[in-house]
Amino acid sequence: MTVAVYIAVMAAVTYLIRMIPFTFFRKKIKSKFVRSFLKYIPYAVLSAMTIPAVFTSTGNAVTSAVGALVAVVLAFFDLPLILVALAASFSAFLTGLLM
Q: Residues 96, 58: contact at Cβ < 8 Å?
């Protein structure tokens, strides 16, 4: 298949995913349970995509765990995102060098 077909399929899938809720849910959702459920879906999906990538990115579980631990600790102290990302990357790199 060509790249144009891949792009067309992805465009159609993306459009359908965004269009279907507008088609089926024309009125405002009033159920507090459903609204609270829908509120957390973006965080759950982002976590489901990110966490496996974090632990498989370096090819070594130890270096990935060290980088993730440094990121969690620094994020807990509300440090800027760029500092957290750089420190986590550097700590994973340094752990890989020391192993």
A: yes
CB 74 within 8 A of CB 50: no
Q: Is 67 within 8 Å of 99 (Cβ atoms)?
A: no
With 80 as the cut, is the pLDDT of residue 88 above it? yes
Q: Which two tokens stand for residue 35?
A: 């609204």
What is the pTM for the complete model shown?
Answer: 0.62
Whole-number Å distance between alpha carbons of 22 and 15: 11
- CA gap 8, 14 in Å, rounded: 10
Reading phi first (left if > 0) and then psi (alpha if -120 to 50, else beta), residue 58 is in alpha
pLDDT reading at 1 higher than 80: no
Distance of CA 13 to the CA centre of its chain: 19
- How many residues comprise the chain? 99
